[in-house]
Amino acid sequence: MARAAEDDERAFSELVRRYQGRVLNLISRVLNDREASDDLAQEVFVRVFVHRRNYRRGSRFSTWLFTIAANLAKNEIRRRVRRRNWFSLDALTEALKDSAIQLADPAEGRESLMEREQLQEAMGRAIATVPEKYRLSLVLRDIEGLPYEEIAQVLGIPGGTVRSRINRARSMLKRKLQPLLRREGTP
Amino acid sequence: MNCREARRYFGAYWDDELTQAEREWLEGHFAACADCRRGYDEHARVLELAASLPRHEPETGFTERVLARARRAAPAPDRVPSASPAWLPVTAAAAALLLVGTLAVPWLLPRRDMPRAPVATLATPAPDAVPQAASAPSGPADAPGAPAASGAAPTDLAAVPDSLFDHSASVEFILDPVPLRRGRPQAPSPALPVQAERAVISF
Question: Where is the Putative zinc-finger domain (chain B) (predicted)?
Fold first, then answer.
């Protein structure tokens, strides 16, 4: 990053290549919108490039990068919520109901009912319905695997708040997916 | 400890952040409580599922698109041609030279306190000569001031400061409207008023 800050374009390209997957995954999991995520992930790196001289060398680059990504994702969520109730609970309920019906179809074998792909899709939708402040912590921790301390830095909140948010987000997620998990576990 | 407290430990147990004593207690509780055991299994299942979500990979050309957008957003100064045209520095230097020259000329030329005698000799008689000039007989050949002016002109004119630059000279030329006639010019009237540092020239 130090080389990128000194207008070394090759170093910047290397940074993009190294982190593009993590940034894209974070944003797409938070938004549950693959199409929009690509554009937003590009914007993250553009912001990094534009503000490259503001990067403090003592701090971790990934923390700075995820801070930018989290802020952009938050802005995007709020923009969508302002426009329409994009992540409505009713929509999730319907989505999960559809998934549950498909998964519970008795005409098919259990293995095919619980296809991993469908469960993952339901999980993606469920994550997208968790309130924004819990969702970001959850994705950073349970999908991106960041340590609590780094999440606290990225989100600019105390470590204790991070823990409580993640616990609440996990509980919400579990409640939302419980019907599917119970069906999956039923012989 | 009861089941409620055991459920509070689920997250820390998953993150492996419990102390040895807490972990042993919780695992002992799981052995005795099927509900908590199942509750934790669901908890772990959800988090495993979240962690196992397929990772979204960027499409081909992502880096190139980012670089293109970054260049448009903030062009690096060392890679983009200078926005200022090439003639600008030359013009600026010429303007600076002109300004310096304009300011330096008054210093190089004769100063305000220099004698103005040559100016006076051009058209203005000395104060003590005024009465003589006024009393001199009129006539084309004996025009007042003419002999003195004609005799001193070659040397005195060289000392005349350039009035274009030396505006400190307070010599004022008042040009009276003179009707031009064909033939010889009229001799200036000796009765014209002549004052110090002011010459009235009639053609």
Answer: 3-37
pLDDT digits (tens, 9 = 90+) for B59-80: 888 888 988 888 887 654 544 4
Phi-psi region of B183 (alpha: psi -120 to 50; beta: other; left: phi over 0): left
Task: Tell me the average pLDDT across A141-146.
Answer: 91
**Does residue B191 sit in helix, strand or coil?**
coil
Four-way CATH pick for A1-85: 3.30.420.40, 1.10.860.10, 3.40.50.740, 1.10.1740.10? 1.10.1740.10
Domain segments of chain B as ranges: 3-51, 117-201
A87-187: CATH number = 1.10.10.10
Q: Which residues 40-59 of B are in CB contact (within 8 Å) with A?
A: 42-43, 45-47, 49-59
Rounded to whole angstroms, the Cα distance separating A103 from A108 reads 9
Is the pLDDT assigned to residue B156 strictly greater than 90?
Answer: no
- State the CB neighbour count (10 A cutoff) for residue B100: 10
Q: Determine the residue of chain B that is closest to A25 in CA distance.
A: B56
Residue B144: its pLDDT value, please?
A: 43
Which of chain A's residues have a Cβ under 8 Å away from the Cβ of B47? 142, 170
Residue-range domain boundaries for chain A? 1-85, 87-187
0.90 cut: is pTM over it? no
ipTM of the complex: 0.72
The residue in chain B having the minimum alpha-carbon distance to the alpha carbon of residue A7 is: B76
Probe site for chain B from A6, A45, A68 (most B CB atoms < 10 A): A45
